[in-house]
Backbone:
């Protein structure tokens, strides 16, 4: 068997990654031989602040069964990244040092593991993986990226899309109901507002006044957070709030329960103490991620879903990105672009 450039009518990426057999038959290259190299990745070897993050060289990873490897174009920055780095998850999640960072990314497939069908070297994809804040990363769940979906946005979609979808389902919010979202201008909040609007749900979102126009653009009724929230919400929704989702994790669960009148209609994705008050706490692992990501990609292509990328950081400035995320003032999302 020999290797050569395939003359078939394929994309330039795929054209460079095809096996040509002795009888002239062209087949996709699952793992074209090449000299593996070290690559840059972000790791931490102890819990702590952003100073514990290091840019290191690691052996290039290889995909296992049902996995693909990508050359990373963008990796989303999530609060779970710096919370994990600080050790906030140590009570229920085992971390082995040195630990990698990042759980979502977009990029170009450059190696395909066994038992993978319909995905080939050169395909543009986005999805969930491990250690995605790196030059190359292995994805465990992914979908193909539409041409009109930018890599930066695609790399930031998985966590917020699945979390928003799951939260609305777990809270059983229905068309015609009114939902209050606390911390609505961030990534997850942005996704909740839009998916709720598509489901026929009226949404009131809290954010600082300078972000109210952004919430309106996403179809929500904005209001300020802080003292007097219950009265402001009562004026906006005199017929009551049916359900509430806490995205910010700012200790607001008791107030949301008082506003809705039912702890079972309050859910948090950020406050670990929510269940102590009888409210719900929603967390991964993701459920049906491929279906949700494919649906959100279609919504984006139809102009029904959008996401603001506030800033893209190079891999070497991952610590700065986490500091910005932890400050809690991001509109939309941040990404790392190796």
Residues:
């Amino acid at each position: 068997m020999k290797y050569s450039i395939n003359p078939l009518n394929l994309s330039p990426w795929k054209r460079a990654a095809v096996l040509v057999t002795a009888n002239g038959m062209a087949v996709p290259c699952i793992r074209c031989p090449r000299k593996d190299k070290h690559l840059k990745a972000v790791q931490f070897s102890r819990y702590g602040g952003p100073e514990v993050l290091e840019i290191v060289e690691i052996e290039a990873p290889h995909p296992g069964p049902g996995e693909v490897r990508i050359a990373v174009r963008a990796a989303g920055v999530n609060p779970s990244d710096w919370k994990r780095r600080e050790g906030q998850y140590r009570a229920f999640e085992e971390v082995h040092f040195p630990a990698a960072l990042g759980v979502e990314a977009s990029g170009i497939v450059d190696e395909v593991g066994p038992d993978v069908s319909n995905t080939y070297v050169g395909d543009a994809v986005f999805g969930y993986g491990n250690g995605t804040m790196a030059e190359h990363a292995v994805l465990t769940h992914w979908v193909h990226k539409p041409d009109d979906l930018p890599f930066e946005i695609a790399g930031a979609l998985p966590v917020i899309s699945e979390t928003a979808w799951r939260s609305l389902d777990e809270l059983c919010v229905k068309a015609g109901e009114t939902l209050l979202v606390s911390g609505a201008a961030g990534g997850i909040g942005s996704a909740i507002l839009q998916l709720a609007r598509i489901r026929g749900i009226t949404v009131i979102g809290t954010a600082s006044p300078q972000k109210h126009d952004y919430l309106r653009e996403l179809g929500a009724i904005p209001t300020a957070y802080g003292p007097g929230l219950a009265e402001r919400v009562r004026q906006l929704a005199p017929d009551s709030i049916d359900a509430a989702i806490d995205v910010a994790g700012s200790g607001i669960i008791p107030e949301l329960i008082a506003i809705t009148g039912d702890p079972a209609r309050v859910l948090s994705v950020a406050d670990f103490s929510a269940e102590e008050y009888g409210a719900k706490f929603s967390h991964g692992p993701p459920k049906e991620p491929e279906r949700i990501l494919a649906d959100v990609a279609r919504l984006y292509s139809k102009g029904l879903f959008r996401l603001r990328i506030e800033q893209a950081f190079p891999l070497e400035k991952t610590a700065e990105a986490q500091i910005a995320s932890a400050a809690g003032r991001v509109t939309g999302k941040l990404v790392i672009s190796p």
